[in-house]
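User: Predict the structure for this protein chain, please.
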Amino acid sequence: MKPEGRIPYTVGEIAASTRNALVGGPFGSNLVSADYVDSGVPVIRGQNMGFGRWVMGDFVFVSPEKAESLSANIAKPGDLMFTQRGTLGQVAIVPEGHYDKYVVSQSQMKLTVDCAKANTLFLYYYFTSKEQQEYIKSNSIQTGVPHTNLGILRDTKLLLPPLPEQRVIARILGSIDDKIEANHAMNETLEDMARAVFKSWFVDFDPVSARVKGRAPEGMDEEMAALFPDGFEASLIGEIPRGWHVRPMGEVVKVLGGGTPSTKEPTYWDGGTHPFCTPKDMSLLTSSVLLRD
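Assistant: Here is the predicted structure, written as structure tokens:
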């Protein structure tokens, strides 16, 4: 029994009547890494999903001529994107005000919504709900790398409230997300400021340099300034603040080895958001750390 006032649709039924309103990416041989250029038409890949409501991140590009040859696989601002292969359940909207068109990669699918039936932002929240996420994953194809396809997406059943209600719900949830994104942006600004202060104090030694020249260090009171030496001394890594000393990193931290994700599993490496490094990358045991007495 459907909730009162809800309208049953399939995804195929809410697609716009325009050609290629519901499409996936091109065949593999039609878009390869050799087609990428420094600028042009951006390609939406797994790396551009998973940032919340919007398709974003670092793009690769193809030439306008290549994009024209892939005209059946074009997404435009306002379209809804779905991950077909990789991190299933990712959904995002192509944003306004950046590029006028994008190429859909082989691992994504695009829906241009019939605006007389559904609101795109409401659909984003609908598809990111717990129930829809479970539906997407339970109806995926498990052979090899888990994936879905256009047929499964096209036949996905929806129960949507009337369009005016969709718009109200989308506006409320969107305003909440706007505030969350503003807070994230503020946090990033504060983190950038903290990194800049750390570099000034403990990499460039600006407070020490100021005291050597008889000036008060910027941005701190006398009590804090007194914590920094008023001179430098030689060390194995060059001049350092007087009274500070150099120690091997391995003497002051505990190094733990982990495991390397399987390189045979593309979903571990394509479009991931977690940085990965090895002890070799960091050289923890041979690098030096500067300590204050």
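Residues 8-159 form a domain with the Adenine-n6-DNA-methyltransferase TaqI; Chain A, domain 2 fold (CATH 3.90.220.20).
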